[in-house]
Each structure stands twice: as structure tokens, then as C-alpha cells.
Design a protein that fits this description.
8-stranded antiparallel β-sheet; two-stranded antiparallel ribbon; 3 helices; 14% helix; 174 residues; mainly beta; Thiol Ester Dehydrase, Chain A
Length: 174
């Protein structure tokens, strides 16, 4: 199914997941979709491996953590999630040097916390490689970033704007 992209999210300079200046990072770009899912397309390199040609489980966990934590900002734009609990299920090896798709969404939003789910999909978005559920504390983005807001936190325009993303995955809510 094709989903309309509503907005591209900001990147930072040095974040391991989204940092545009982090040479060892994944340089993921995040998009908010019309179905209230945050999506990132990225791929791993040799720096990210555990066993040959496989992404390290800790990096998979970090991808899911970041993606679910960003999902709250769809409904609360100045808010991000700080992880309280994250549970990962690894289904299949996540390949290196091949595109993967990471999705995160909110399943429950109440008070100062929220729960979310996420998946890592193969390049065709047909196979779930890993999945996660988590609980997050809501925190204002200014409190997280502090003095680093400018210039390390930035919106980076795509060379060719992404208007829609096609995903062959059925999203569930709680």
C-alpha cells in the first residue's frame, strides 16, 4: 500500500542513527506517514556487523528504539520519547549493504508515557526481520537537545522530495 508522506523529520549532526556528520552511523532519514507511522530507510555497513554480513543486534535495537521514540512527535510535535523499556524479537538476520525499512508507531498514549511498536522490514517490506515493543517517557525536545539545538539539530531537504512510501506491511494498533 502507498502511504502519503506528511513531513520529513529533523536530523542531528552526530547521532549514531540519524547523524549526518557521524561517519560510523547509519544516516537514517525519518518520514511521518498519513497512517501515523514513522518510517526510515537505511542500510548497514561493515562497521555495523556482528557475524559476517549481518547487522549487530544492538544496532537493530537502536534503530527500533529511535524510530518508536520519534513516533510521538506526529501528534505532539515538540515531544520525543526517552526509553523506559524496550523488548526486541529478532526474527531473521538483518543484512548489511542492503536497504532496510524501519517503522514505528504509537499503541497507547497516556499522561507522561506512551507505548509503541516497531518493525525492521526487508527492502521489499514483505518480511519482518525484527520487531519491538516499548514504553517511553515523554520529554520536550528542547529539554533533550538543550544548547545543541543550533546548529546540530536540523531539517535537511531531500534532493528529490519523498512524497509517498510504499509498504507491504499491515500495521496494527494495540
Amino acid at each position: 500500500m502507498k502511504y502519503k508522506v506528511l513531513r520529513k523529520q529533523f536530523n542531528s549532526d552526530e547521532c549514531f542513527i540519524c547523524g549526518v556528520k557521524n561517519k560510523s552511523g547509519l544516516n537514517a532519514k525519518f518520514y511521518e506517514l498519513e497512517n501515523k507511522v514513522v518510517v526510515a530507510e537505511t542500510k548497514g555497513y561493515n562497521d555495523h556487523q556482528s557475524y559476517p554480513n549481518r547487522m549487530h543486534g544492538g544496532i537493530i535495537s537502536a534503530l527500533l528504539d529511535e524510530t518508536i521514540g520519534r513516533a510521538i512527535s506526529i501528534d505532539e510535535p515538540e515531544t520525543w520519547g526517552v526509553t523506559i523499556k524496550l523488548e526486541i524479537t529478532y526474527r531473521k538476520p538483518v543484512p548489511l549493504d542492503d536497504k532496510i525499512i524501519v517503522c514505528g508507531w504509537i499503541t497507547k498514549n497516556k499522561g507522561q508515557t506512551f507505548k509503541g511498536e516497531g518493525v525492521v522490514l526487508d527492502k521489499d517490506s514483505k518480511t519482518v526481520l525484527a520487531e519491538a515493543t516499548g514504553t517511553f517517557f515523554k520529554q520536550n525536545i528542547d529539554n533533550i537537545i538543550g544548547d545543541h539545538f543550533m546548529p546540530g539539530w536540523q531539517y535537511i531537504e531531500d534532493h528529490k522530495p519523498v512524497l509517498e512510501i510504499e509498504l507491504d506491511y499491515e500495521f496494527t494498533r494495540g
